[in-house]
Amino acid sequence: MGRRFKDMQTPEQQWAAQQAPRLRGMAYQAEQESERQQMTADVYGRRGRDYSDPVKADRAQREADRLRSRGKALRDTASRAETEVKPKKRGWFR
Predict the structure, then answer these.
(1) Each residue's pLDDT tens digit, 56-86
(2) How far, in Å, are 10, 23, 58 from residue 40 at the CA level?
(3) Whole-Å CA distances, 31 to 24, 52, 71
(4) Is the dihedral of CA 35, 40, 45, 50 positive or negative?
(5) What's this model's pTM, rounded to 2 decimal places?
(6) For the purposes of burial, counting CB atoms within 10 Å of the CB of 1, is it exposed (0-12), middle (13-18) or buried (19 or more)?
(7) CA dihedral (29, 16, 76, 57) positive or negative
(8) Phi and psi angles of residue 24, each rounded to the nearest 5 degrees, phi first
(9) Helix or strand run (H / E) with residue 44
(10) What is the rounded distance in angstroms from the CA atom of residue 32 to the CA atom of residue 64?
(11) 92 or 49, which is more confident?
(12) For 9-17, which contacts have Cβ atoms below 8 Å and span 24 or more sequence positions?
């Protein structure tokens, strides 16, 4: 028995399924970079130290927050792409 036309994936859905792992990889890289920026913000944000630099700490904190939100958005996009591609379960009378 052949596949029905409505069960087939469109080229856009196939492309989205291929992009999901790449998006997850980009999200991972963004989260790793945000951790690095957070460490910079923590180190330079310490008050009363010789190496204290509030301007550099604030800049690193903003960058870390931006990268975290980018990573979350990429993961959400990848999850959405994967759920759109999953085939529908067919019931007996559908």
Answers:
(1) 999 999 999 999 999 999 999 999 888 876 6
(2) 45, 26, 10
(3) 11, 25, 6
(4) positive
(5) 0.73
(6) exposed
(7) positive
(8) -65, -35
(9) helix 11-44
(10) 10
(11) 49
(12) 9/85, 13/84, 13/85, 14/85, 16/81, 16/82, 16/84, 16/85, 17/81, 17/82, 17/85
Interatomic CA distance for residues 60 and 89, integer angstroms: 47
Query: Both tokens of residue 43?
Result: 């180190």
Q: What is the pLDDT of residues 5-48, one digit of tens each?
A: 666 777 777 787 788 899 999 999 999 999 999 999 999 998 88
Torsion angle (degrees, nearest 10) of CA 37, 43, 44, 50 = -160
Q: Which residue has the tokens 């087939």?
A: 8
